[in-house]
Write a structure and sequence with these properties.
mainly alpha, two-stranded antiparallel sheet, single chain, 36% helix, 4% strand, TIM Barrel
Length: 158
């Protein structure tokens, strides 16, 4: 039987594995309102389901927050936050967005969440686990959640 790390690396190389490496993520909209809550929930799920690798998940709206999205946090783990102001009225507004420092604001908070996750996984499994970074290219991450409903439906067809 392979260790989790051996299983993942063998699968990435295309070598035979004892079973397919498994990981999963879901949004718990209440837990992800803070870096600590996000880290704790990620580690809880990894322990409960004994995943082979950790795929850290960022707060659903953190990318749009960097450019002005405001929202009312959810009080239910299965119900998404409520948008109160969007930074974009339509796709053309993306041209006015300027680069942001990922070490600050909502993105910085997501980076802060990675530290306890990394330490927890190393403690839990006693080995180093590679994980995908939580940050995606900024413009690719501006999605329908940061546009008005009308602009989002219009952008989906262009």
């Amino acid at each position: 039987m392979a260790t989790k790390r051996e299983r993942v690396l063998a699968a990435l190389r295309g070598d035979p594995v004892d079973r397919v490496p498994l990981s999963f993520w879901l949004h718990n909209f209440v837990a992800e309102n803070s870096a600590k809550g996000l880290a704790d929930e990620t580690l809880r799920l990894a322990r409960v389901f004994d995943w082979d690798f950790l795929k850290p998940q960022s707060r659903a709206q953190c990318f749009a927050e960097m450019w002005g999205l405001t929202y009312r946090p959810s009080t239910d783990r299965a119900i998404q936050y409520s948008v109160t102001q969007t930074p974009l009225a339509g796709a053309a507004d993306a041209a006015r967005l300027s680069p942001v420092d990922p070490r600050t604001g909502a993105l910085g908070e997501q980076l802060d969440a990675l530290m306890p996750q990394t330490a927890g996984i190393r403690t839990e499994y006693g080995e180093r686990h590679e994980s995908a970074p939580p940050l995606k290219p900024a413009l690719a991450s501006i999605n329908a959640s940061c546009m008005s409903p009308r602009a989002a439906s219009s952008a989906a067809y262009h």
